[in-house]
Design brief:
alpha+beta, Beta-Lactamase
């Protein structure tokens, strides 16, 4: 074990207990059900004793509830997500923009960011004829197969994007899902040239989506904005001819405000 004297300044500032508590909170999202102590320990890789201390601490703070056997997140946990949403100017700016896109196109639109190997949806405007994907705030999709993910991966340095693709699972979600690394790298190269990404029935059969990058004042890509539609309603030509201009117009408007 590293002694106090040989620890780096960064290591001395690191709070292991906080890390373990946050890992327990994330475990609920991975399991999508109440957790037993054993399940919490297994998912986080912590010992049962460590997992128990974290769960009991979170329970004492009001973030976790228990019936004696199972633990579940309490409503107080919503404060963590709300703190992020309420403190991020981009989200406040984007919500009316997405609602305007959906009102004009009668299709659902979303804003997403990259988190590890997934994209996480932070804002959304859904129409009554939304698709069966059932995306909501905080929903995650594998980056390699999502139009939003491809935009965000393409914004990374090419060597970083290649390394991330090689390390991720690259699930085959439909028969059309592209999982080959070399082919995905070609797709990302096209995204860099074209300025948009397409997903044609790769996440869900019968569903097409298109996404563009959102850049800050310094030109750095900070998020991805997308529109999703049914293949019954929108051909690829229609997606490119009708939906892409909507995204491009909104992207320019947002870019001028950031």
């Amino acid at each position: 074990m590293t002694s106090q004297e040989t620890r780096t300044p960064e290591e001395k500032e690191y709070v292991t207990g906080l890390e373990k508590g946050l890992a327990i909170i994330e475990a609920f999202g991975i399991h999508n059900e109440p957790l037993t102590l054993s399940e919490a320990a297994q998912i986080t890789g912590h010992s049962r004793a460590s997992a128990r201390r974290s769960l009991l601490t979170l329970q004492a703070l009001g973030y976790v509830q228990s019936d004696g056997k199972h633990f579940r997140l309490a409503p107080r946990a919503l404060r963590l997500g709300h703190a992020y949403v309420s403190s991020t100017a981009l989200l406040r700016l984007m919500q009316p923009v997405l609602e305007g896109i959906s009102e004009r196109t009668r299709e659902s639109s979303s804003l997403a960011v990259l988190d590890g190997n997934d994209v996480v949806f932070l804002a959304r405007a859904a129409t009554r004829r939304s698709l069966s994907t059932g995306l909501g705030l905080g929903s995650r999709l594998p980056a390699h197969g999502a139009a939003t993910g491809r935009v965000l991966l393409a914004a990374l340095p090419p060597e970083d994007a290649a390394l991330r693709l090689k390390r991720m699972a690259r699930q085959q979600m439909t028969p059309r899902t592209q999982t080959d690394v070399d082919e995905l790298l070609k797709i990302l190269a096209d995204v860099r040239v074209n300025g948009y990404a397409l997903c044609d029935e790769e996440l869900e059969l019968g569903v097409r989506s298109i996404a563009v990058p959102i850049q800050d004042a310094g030109g750095q890509v900070v998020a991805s904005m997308s529109i999703v539609a049914s293949t019954r309603r929108r051909s690829l030509d229609n997606v490119l001819g009708s939906l892409l201009p909507e995204l491009e117009s909104a992207r320019r408007m947002v870019g001028a405000m950031l």
